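Late entry, manganese (II) ion complex.
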Amino acid sequence: MAADPLLTLDHASPIVTLQGHLLAKQASIPGATGTLSWILSALSISAKIIANKVRCARLQDVLGEAGADNVQGEQQQKLDVISNNVLLRLLGQREGVAIVASEENEEPVIIRDDPSGERRYCVLFDPLDGSSNLDVCGGVGTIFSILRHDRRAKDAPSSLLQPGREQVAAGYVLYGSSTVFVLTVGDGVDMFVLDPAVGAFMLVERGIRCPSANKSYSVNEGNRRTFPEGYQSYLDWAQERGYSSRYVGSMVADVHRILLKGGVFMYPPTKKAPDGKLRLMYEANPMAMLIEQAGGAALAAPGQRILDVQPTDIHQRVPVILGSRDEVANVAAQLG
Ligand code: AHG
Ligand code: MN
Ligand code: MN
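Prediction complete; structure with ligand written out below:
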């Protein structure tokens, strides 16, 4: 059995928490005020609270439907509501947050809109992604995106309608067999795992690279007959070449696997959802930033980067093709 790494004093492998990592990054940027770190720390505390709720959901009787539909007309689960409230309450306390927008709220929540000189941010999130997997102990997650607040914008929605390439940070938390926090602030992708006994996210991997290829695709094949033709040709092409299919039905879990192991994740247009099902601002943009920062690719259509899509509505949907660079190119080639 390998010896406990703490038995030796190894200065070459320091113990780094998410908090320490953020403070070190902040110290390396001249003039940084710490505002963004303080917002990320609110997200990390939210993640710990939500992780705990998810783990005890059955015991605390917070599984099942809350009895209302969200703005997308989807049934809200009790844990969707709880997660949303946790994030809104924690982010609301942070001076640096101007506007918060959630998949679960019809309108953005304006926290601070005074024209003070301080730089402020907009935080957008999907509080609980894949919530239909909760009842069966499947992996679920939280996805977030951070934009600069545009003080010149005439109202909150117009301040938020920035293309994904303007994001200053993005990430997700996967509540899986462990709780994993994956973050980019625009200089690569780092991964932290929650040590539940210590209560801190510990850095486990810096500068993650998405493998450039892997013969694996992730898509809801039950919808295949209503995909545009190019996607159907891609599936024929991939199956002829012995590709594997892996689909959890929870974007965070599916994208996490692709980030680490490679492959392609797709949510194409379908008859029921002609623009795809996934939301540009809460799901597609943050995942696209992470995947691109890890060396992968993220398209809405051939030649159309997700990060370049100009949003017109905060709740708009977009087709998604993302993952390993070569595998995304293989899909795009079939779409023509
Ligand atoms: P949410 O639970 O936030 O509404 O997101 C649902 C998602 C996403 O996690 C997943 O990729 C997709 O819906 C799965 O949709 P299908 O069940 O149509 O495959
Ligand atoms: Mn979602
Ligand atoms: Mn959700």
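The chain has a mean pLDDT of 94. Will revisit in the morning.
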